[in-house]
Amino acid sequence: MSTQTDFSLHNSPLYSTKPHRNSASAWLLEYAPSRYIAMASTVCQEIVEAPQILAVPAIPDYGLGLIQWRNRWLPLVDLHSLLLGAEKKTFDKDAHCLVVAYYTAEQHIAYVALSLPYFPYLITVNNSALCALPTDHDIWPSISLSCFRYQDRRVPIVDSSRLFNRHAILLDEGHKKSL
Amino acid sequence: MNTQRLRGDYVLLRADSLRLVVCQEDIISIKHLKDRKVADLHCLSNRGQLLSAMNDNDNQQPVFAALSDKLALTDSIARNRYVVTTHKKNADICWCWSEVQLLNHVDMPLAPMPALLCSALTPINAVVTLASGKQAFVCDFEQLLNYLTQSESESA
């Protein structure tokens, strides 16, 4: 399976890209030092610098609050904590976040703001860089479309809908370890 | 774009910077503590004490509780918590607030809490922006009690 095919797995505007024959563009998100995921370029909407955060009590550990974006309240989440349960970092006033779109289980488009310690950047992924998923955590097969090698690191290409719906489902089922 | 609205009669309960909006019909009374020293009040400062008070239907003395802005029970009743409400659910418990404001016949836009920030225990259902420009969280008081007695949040 090629990266090119993987990006077009979802026949929808969010996932439709027009990649070159042997490559596709993706946003590289460094969620911890030298730890990356990638997301399809079309799901990443905007980098918001120094957003104003509304603190919300009694939310899951990975949650940092709400931010206002284009007249909507978006959840702001710590990506490292959301992915791997890492302890969330406090969000500095001048920090940035990346707004990402996904489809809810009801097929509505929803948005999430991801807190990242580093700026994301757009890269071109060649099919020749494809590799197996990392084996350090069992989350990757359930949320990843594919994987490529970047600077000797395996970078899962994460399906935003699978990632964010997975957490909503887990929370609904009461599987969240604690608040 | 969300077009849901909050309509009806509500009460704004402020605990320092935390603003909660609850249904007016869930509230039995609103009183002022002007003649009492708040330091002398018997304060429910942890989950166990709250549970005991909720299960004890023959409380001889009124019991008091207050919330921090992180939605946790406080260790004591601060001096600025002089407005007290009692609620239909567990009416023996007096809740102390910095400010209580009636919101009659409101009709304002409401933003539901994103599913990603909710759990089975999350008592906050939505966010509204008040006339003052401040945000408040719409919550169900029974859900709030459920959260306080079941979550692992510690007292502030």
Task: Using brief descriptors, characterize the structure shown.
heterodimer; A: 179 residues; alpha+beta; OB fold (Dihydrolipoamide Acetyltransferase, E2P); three-stranded antiparallel sheet; 40% strand; disordered N terminus; B: 156 residues; mainly beta; five-stranded mixed beta barrel
Largest sheet of chain B: 5 strands, mixed, barrel
Low-confidence stretches of chain A: 1-14, 175-179
Alpha carbon gyration radius of chain B: 15 Å
Q: Helices and strands of chain A, in N-to-C order? A: HEEEEEEHEEEHEEH
Shape of chain B: globular
Amount of beta strand of chain B: 35-45%
Biggest interface between chains: A-B, 27 and 27 residues
Helices and strands in order, then pairings?
The complex is a heterodimer of chains A (179) and B (156).
Chain A lengths: L2 H5 L15 E10 L2 E6 L3 E6 L3 E2 L8 E7 L2 E7 H6 L11 E8 L5 E7 L5 E6 L13 H4 E7 L2 E6 L1 H13 L7
Parallel strand pairs in A: 6-8
Antiparallel strand pairs in A: 1-2, 1-9, 3-7, 4-5, 5-6, 7-8, 10-11
Chain B lengths: L4 E11 L2 E6 L3 E6 L14 H9 L7 E4 L16 E5 L5 E5 L1 E14 L11 E6 L5 E5 L1 H10 L6
Structure commentary:
The complex is a heterodimer of chains A (179) and B (156). Chain A has a single domain (3-178), classed as CheA-289, Domain 4 (OB fold (Dihydrolipoamide Acetyltransferase, E2P)). In chain A, a hairpin with a 2-residue loop joins β10 and β11 (153-158). In chain A, the strands form 3 sheets. In chain A, strands 3-7-8-6-5-4 form a 6-stranded mixed sheet. Chain A has helices at residues 3-7, 79-84, 140-143, 160-172, and strands at residues 23-32, 35-40, 44-49, 53-54, 63-69, 72-78, 96-103, 109-115, 121-126, 144-150, 153-158. Residues 1-14 and 175-179 of chain A have low confidence and may be disordered. Chain A is α+β, with helices and mostly antiparallel strands and 179 residues long. Chain A is globular. Chain A is built from 4 helices and 11 strands, in the order αββββββαβββαββα. Chain B is mostly beta strands and 156 residues long. The relative contact order of chain B is 0.27. Chain B has one domain. The mean pLDDT of chain B is 88. In chain B, the strands form 2 sheets. A 5-stranded mixed barrel of chain B has the order 1-2-9-8-7. In chain B, strands 3-5-6-4 form a 4-stranded mixed sheet. Chain B is built from 2 helices and 9 strands; from the N terminus they run βββαββββββα. In chain B, β1 (5-15) and β2 form a beta hairpin. The chains are: A alpha+beta (179), B mainly beta (156). Chain A binds chain B through residues 54-60, 63, 66, 71-75, 77, 104, 110, 112, 164, 167-168, 171-172, 174, 176, 178-179, and chain B through 1-2, 18, 69-72, 111, 113-124, 127, 135, 137, 147, 151-153.
